[in-house]
Predict the structure.
Amino acid sequence: MTDRLKILVVASEVEGLVKTGGLADVARALPACLQAMGHDVRIVMPAYQRIREHWRDWPAQPMQLPLSLFENHRVQARTGTHAGLPMILLEHAPSFERPGVYDDGYGAFDDNPRRFAILSKGALAWCKANDWQPDILHLNDWQSALAAFYLAEHYKDDAFFAHTRSLLSLHNAAYQGHADARWLQPLGIHEVFFRSEIFEDYGRINLLKGGIHFADGLNAVSPGYAEELVTDMGGHGLGAYFRARKNNLIGILNGCDYGQWSPETDPDIAAQFHSIDDTGKAQCKIALQREFKLAEKPVPLLVSISRLTDQKGFHLLIPALENILKNEDIQVVLLGSGDAQLAAQLHSLEQRFPLKLRFVEGYDMALAHRLEAGGDAFLMPSLFEPCGLNQIYSLRYGTLPLVRHVGGLKNTVVAYNNDGSNLNTATGFSFLDPNANALQQALEQLIQLYQTDPATWQQLQRNAMAQRFEWRDSAQQYVDFYRQLLATPRSTSTTSKH
Ligand code: ADP
Ligand code: GLC
């Protein structure tokens, strides 16, 4: 094994090209860091129509892609660079020539199993076609989980990949890639693998579950989430299968791209600032109040940036805010897109509290920066949170996070004890019970501290701004895990087990 590893990252989204959530941030920042450490990293992603200008002029390499005896596809591999990273975008018009990434706005695409099988197998086919032998196949979530199976079974006897090991990162195990059993043949999954320890899940195919079985290594994107996944409560229905792999499952906390998220250099904010003693943070708050036509007065300004989905705890947040807004002089600005029903509830909350609350429905990256900079506190009451990035960004801007004590949130935010015993380490607020009451109490604690004890509030801000979650530390843990996997025989050989 040489020091320089060949790492093939397979991801369905990469920041700067296509992003629906934090996976994209990671799929750009981690490879960049690994590359800076001297490793040879390539990223494979679909050539989505919506980013055609990026790849239209990149050289195209035709490849045959047999998924099974019944499905042989013609794919073009487009190679180029994005933000200094070597990219391989797989062009397959029947799969990716459409506006959506995973869905059409109403529901998931029916042919997602094939679309992401093409990504998964295409990654391996590209390696062979280009005689590029990867040490590590780094997969991310259900969309590329099948690659672990293809490596272990379709290429089982292929000396080319004999040395390659697969790692499946779990960014969000609630999304599992379910498919009707009729997809077994087209995807090239022999029916011996359609049993409950592997792909079968209540009569359907579960792609993530298959990946959990076949990947040589697994990692959750925080130690907290790794602990939760092996439980029945926190395993998204797959707890037993995570437990079966617990010796190969670790937690590696995501890092933060401080090149993009630092108040000292952020080009999107009203005034840059180095510390809370600068006037910059206060200017950012006033700019935000002006932008949203909120009174320019020193009341707590709470912000949130989120996908609108049940995961993020809106059914706790909406009633808790409703109660608090009736009694307290606070301001709230929420940014989010996703579930239409949640959006409707947030619009209606805005109508009831027109002087206090604004809801911006949409996806707006520059506004996300202005909110991080101008808010006093950041709300993230997630039911589960594999890692969470926004609370990490918030810390850097001295915007104190209020989080539920779960997953990566509990690894990144130190909740303030009301007795002041952790004054020098606390960075935010938290609650545990997943109900609106518990959240409301934490909100009250936050508001009271803001109103009555500015010195403590500022100390928490200082503590928060001093926190660092550096990608190079996380990347080093990935490299250590890669090397451990490379030093170990392939973990699963299944045909003997039935
Ligand atoms: P998740 O991946 O579960 O959505 P994370 O906190 O890990 O949660 O990452 C979310 C990322 O997406 C952050 O970079 C955040 O700023 C961004 N984001 C989410 N929703 C929006 C939005 N409506 N507008 C702008 N950025 C958003
Ligand atoms: C997922 C998770 C989020 C995590 C992100 C990046 O989208 O929901 O918690 O930060 O992936 O790993």
Remarks:
- Residues 100 and 155 are 31 Å apart (CA to CA).
- Residues 493-498 have pLDDT under 50 and may be disordered.
- The radius of gyration is 23 Å.
- Residues 112-129 form the longest helix (18 residues).
